[in-house]
Amino acid sequence: MPALDWEDFRVIPHEEAKAELLETLEGAGFQGTSWQEGDPALFGVELGAALMARLSAYAVFLRDNALNDTAKREGLTRLSRSRFGNERNPALATQRKLTLACAAGEGPHTIGLGDLVATDADGHTFRNIEGLDIVYPITLASGGTVTLLFEAEIAGAAHNVANGNVNALVTTLAGVTITADVLYRAGQDEESDERLKARNASKVATRALEPIRDTIENLALEAAPAVTAVGIDDENPRGAGTFDVYLAGDLATATQEDVDAVQAALDARVFGDTSGDPNTRPGYAVAANTLALDITATVYYSPAFEAAAVQAGVEAALLAFVRSIPLGGFDYSSALEDVVPVTEIAAAIKNATVNGQQGAVRAVVIATPSADVEPDPFEKVIPGTWTLTFTPTDS
What's the pLDDT at 1? Predict the structure, then answer.
């Protein structure tokens, strides 16, 4: 039997398996082209084809779920837990402090736990929860104010809108308005497959006594769930024996809270003075500088698709592309390092998924950037101003 290549592990349809069995039988001198329904030989071929198709599905399942670099979603979650001791970080709901004011002559209103729903202009909704030492039910007096903790009804980073944007009550209370909105706890999306794979791959390095690059990356990813990109300058940036750890999230640089969490993890792991001036620390955590990726382009698309659907698909593809850019840009070869090629931007747009399928975008003409983008070392590329013109075309 010839050796199997990786590509040989694929799901084989029943009819293809049947044709392969018949070819094998004919090669052995067995002729059969006009079997009747219920013929034992036909039954044997059909049964063999069904088993071959089912076994191929099992083989693909093992290929896609037994290895860290190929596993995905639930398979990766289970692999991470059983082999690496890593749990996928769940989505976290945004929490906000909202101040409610009741007009004089209205109220009073008795507010129970979960009674109120607030929203912003984009339809993100938040419901009042326990917190801020509030004891429910609470009374909002006529002419009075109260500050309550609200939590997004759907977990994820999409609800991390700017302060002041959550300014309307869905639940109607006579004379009550929202006068202040402050982000209390940022939400986060469920940990992506790519980030979990990175934690798994670097986990073994944490068993070493001295910190190495994988160890440092793993420390950063474990310490700050919102950090998805880690860059390490280990060429003694602040003198002999020092290294800097640059941090960023999917579409922004790291917050000070995340930097502090990573710094604490580094201080607990490395040898040397970790007090006082950061320059005396062997390892130093820092939020990566950012570079806004401005794009001006004309997108030619099939008229079989709605312009709004094409726009949504293209913007989602561009966001996914920006997330994939490592700190400092891509490295393709010694002659093409620390770069975001214009051709890759165009390819991301061209391959956008619209209504669940590719091929809606037929051509892309990019005016900005006019040349490949070259981030500084360890710089985080983030979405800039995107001016996209969508034009239907039959060609």
Answer: 44
